[in-house]
Amino acid sequence: MGRSYAGIVYWRRSLWNGMRCVPVLLTLDEGRLRARDRRGAEVFAAPAGQVEARGTIVGTMLLTVGGHRYALVGVGATVSPAPSAEQRRRLAEYTARGEPVPDLASWWEVLAGAGVTVR
Known about the structure:
The protein has 2 helices and 9 strands; from the N terminus they run βββββββαβαβ. It is of the alpha+beta class.
C-alpha cells in the first residue's frame, strides 16, 4: 500500500474571475487522486495514472482528469473563502495517517511519484 498525502489548494473555477477560487482538499490515497470542495462534495477522483499535470508560467497547476481541466493554485484571491471546518477536519484525519503537503509546489514531486503524467 502506498503512502497517503493531503493538502488544501485552491481551484480556479474561472481563469478570469478571482472570486471563483475555492479551496479544495486534495488527497492522494491508495493510488487515487481526489479533490473535495468546502461541502465535502467530490470535485474529481481518478487513479493517479489517469491524471495529467502541467504547469503554467504563472504557477498554476493544470490537472486533466477524465477529459476535464482543473486549474489549481496555492492560494486563493483575497475574496476567496477559507477552507471549511469539514475540510480542515478531513485534512487532520489524512495527515494523522499520512503526510501533509504544505503547498502547491510540493505536489509536483508527490504526483510524479504516484504515476501522474507530469509535463
